Amino acid sequence: MAVKACGLIIYRRLQSAPPSKVTDGIEYLLLQTSYGTHHWTPPKGHVDPGEDDLQTAFRETQEEAGLQASQLILIEGYKKELHYPVRGKPKTVIYWLAEMKDCNTEIKLSEEHQAFQWLKLEDACRFAEYEDMQATLKEAHQFLCSKE
């Protein structure tokens, strides 16, 4: 059976962006793991028994970044499933898109992560390393741009 994890691609809009270029003012939150290769990823984690996928995404975001569901706006219409092998076993990760209500909200990392960054799309893709994560970030950004 595939391992399943769920998470949120979290972004914030910087107030300084000119209104004509709203999407230029978007930054994505990536967390650097404190284990393994110290890769950068949005907050995500495994589904607990009795939890639905979206509950998992919000719980993991709270545990890993210190963000409450009430501090985020879930963006309707965006959901992405990634499938890839981890140590020879299939893994599914489901991401939703969420916007920070206050772009200055403090991030509080758990011991699972050693650093965080707010990054523009290009830098987020560079940090994310994995092709499927880069493609997901670009797709989420495109989705946001199409809604403007």
What does this structure look like?
- This protein is α+β, with helices and mostly antiparallel strands and 148 residues long.
- It has one domain (3-147): Alpha-Beta Complex (Nucleoside Triphosphate Pyrophosphohydrolase).
- Helix content is 26%, strand content 39%.
- It has three helices and seven strands, in the order E-E-E-E-H-E-E-E-H-H.
- Strands 1, 2, 3, 4, 5, 6 and 7 form a seven-stranded mixed β-sheet that branches.
- Helix 2 (121-128) runs antiparallel to helix 3.
- The longest helix is centred in the C-terminal third of the chain and has 17 residues, at 131-147.
- It is globular and about 45 Å long.
Explain the layout of strands and helices:
Layout: E1 3-13, E2 26-33, E3 40-41, E4 44-46, H1 53-65, E5 72-86, E6 89-100, E7 113-119, H2 121-128, H3 131-147
Parallel strand pairs: 1-6
Antiparallel strand pairs: 1-2, 1-4, 2-3, 2-7, 5-6
Helix pairs in contact: 2-3
